[in-house]
Amino acid sequence: MQTDIDPRSLIGRKAFDRNGAKIGTVDEVYLDDATGVPEWAAVRTGLFGRDAFVPLEPSEVVDDALRVPFERSLIKDAPDFGVGRHLSPEQELQLYHHYGLDVALPSDFQRPRPQDTP
């Protein structure tokens, strides 16, 4: 993802899948505790307001929207861990595996936390 984007500016943006289908709206952004780098976005999907976690890398902001390079069905089937609290290392690994992303966690790995909103 573009590193010059303020993570708070992602909140409220529409999110679309790789085919341009609307997924929902970015509800929260999760930062890595150690680096402060935005790592995950919780996207509110569907009528019942379930949040699906999507990886911000390799997603990108295009035309004021978050473009997630995965199919809508895969995103909607992502594990549901709730929002507003840290993701455990195990939960984060489940998400990486769900999206087929490789991750090598350092020994001092710290959990992502929700971005504080003003």
UniProtKB/TrEMBL annotation:
Pfam families assigned: PRC
Name this polypeptide is given: PRC-barrel domain-containing protein
InterPro entries assigned to the protein according to its UniProt record, in alphabetical order: Bac_photo_RC_H_C, PRC-brl_dom, PRC_barrel-like_sf
Positions of the PRC-barrel domain: 8-69
